[in-house]
Fold this sequence. Notes:
- In chain A, 73% of the residues lie in helices and 0% in strands.
- Chain A is built from 5 helices and no strands.
- The radius of gyration of chain A is 31 Å and the shape is rod-shaped.
- Chain B is an alpha/beta fold.
- In chain B, strands 4-3-6-1-2-5 form a 6-stranded antiparallel β-sheet.
- In chain B, strand 7, helix 8 and strand 8 form a beta-alpha-beta unit.
- In chain B, helix 1 (3-14) runs antiparallel to helix 3, helix 2 packs across helix 5 (87-103) and helix 4 (64-78) packs across helix 6.
- The longest helix of chain B is centred in the first third of the chain and has 28 residues, at 109-136.
- Chain B: Its cofactor is heme b.
Amino acid sequence: MTAETPWGNPTGERQPLTPDRVRKQEFTRTSLGRRGYSEDEVRAFLYRVAEDMAASDKEKADLRAYIDRMKQWYKEHGMNPEQAAVSQTPNVDAINILSRAQQTADAQIAEAEDYARRIVSQARRQYEELLMEAQRQAEEAANQAVGAYRASGNGLQSAEAEELERRIAYLRTFADVTQVQLRAVLEGLAQEVDKLGHVPEQAKQLAAGPLAGGSPSPSVYG
Amino acid sequence: MDTQALKDSWHLVSRSGDQVPLYFYSILFLMNPDVRDMFPVSMARQRDKLVGALGRVVSNVDRVEEVVPFLQQLGRDHRKFGVTATHYPAVGQALLATLEHFLGDRWTPTLAHDWTQAYNLVAQVMVDAANESSKVSPPWWEAEIISHETRTLGIAVIRARLNYQYPFRPGQSASISYAMRPRVWRFYSFANAPRQDNTIDLHVRMVDGGVLSSALVMGARRGEVLRVGAAVGERLTLPADVQGDLLMIAGGTGLAPLKALVEQIAYEGPTRRVDLVIGARNSRELYDYEAMAKMAAEHPWLNVVPVVSHDPFYRGNRGYAVDVALQGWRGQHVYVCGSEEMAQATVGRLLDAGVPTEQIHFDEFTSDKGRES
């Protein structure tokens, strides 16, 4: 059930890796919790591999451009009979420049997305831990409250009152522990999420600025 | 047309990997700068998609019956990007120039002729399908958000009203985009059966770092407008030949299409017993349990069981949804929906437990499709 086969390659042949595929490669977790390679190291390595691949792609493109220029030269000097077509397509150097710009943009966006992904998952983990800790403390406080209620024994105790004491103590502790900290986590999370959208938008405006006379970009729907 | 020559030359070209689509898009944009704006800023995923689609077409070029429906779907689907018939020749030109560049000496006039013919055929099928669908449906629908509820950190339930009548069946999904994240489309399942008032419900979970899901959960507000593509997908619908009782297993927001099926049964029947096991990591992620419990109270044939896997303080069923579900399996058809990980693990467990393949309904592309695109 690999995602690639049905869509990409019915012949079942291995597709060449692309920098993007290397960057996004996921690894199965080992079954025993968190044992295995350091996630950061693996991730850093993948980025290096992706960069190397992109660099070698650039080199190949340069070589092809060089070959094309040579061919062109031969043609211009009448050494190659088949002259037709070729020239109405854009200059191969222009194609290379655009390709490189695109690769640079791709790499930077991938990096920004990866950064956002890490920050958000970190914030989520923190949130889970905070809630768990708050729940634990609240349980403890509730049990204490019940103990105190029982100890105060004046013969008028009822199960309902006891449950009420338990719930009040639970909620009070839970609210105390979570309120401030959770708000901080949530705010951080919201900020990161907002950034996620603004980065490319900003970059676009900067890029459009000088040429477009700094006019605001048109409708967001584009 | 020498189909073997086409395949062979494509095989040769595709060995250059990412460089091929990189070159293709560069040449396309240089010759037609206006087209650039139809694509997202990052093109990395787009390049993979192009190679995938081309590879599929070329490898099946001699089995027309397999390629045509795929191309028709592609043609219909491209309407939402604003692609018109006039764009196809430009793409063809860029494709031929790319092939020529990568094939070098092997690019012969005969091969050029065959590729031109093949491309024109492909373009014709896509344009025809697009024209055909433009007679009956708009390129996309606009849906105004009429409510946005954040149910827990990272999960929102969004209700939106579509501007025209929108045909879909429970269990289907559609690609959706949002003005705050232009040109990003992602598939979401509808969480309801079609309604008179033309509203749809979406259950959106924030994927860590996911551009669109984050914006929809944290940023989208009432009054804003979503774009919705045509409904697609048959794997999770309820066809007439699936009879008798059903067992449903939902993981997280995978509840959405299953809830739609429950509504369909409630509206249309036939009445059958439905056991719906809702799995979540913790109790907070049982984000729609109240609504489901209410439905269960209204419909005696519906049984809803929440199961929580990672929450030591949860007082109800603890464990994995599939294990609880298997205790109640008595030969029913089983519907599964959740994250890719959850769906794979669940289907594996079902098969191990002896549930016949043909009785397991799940969309192997739900999560794949669900990736940002």
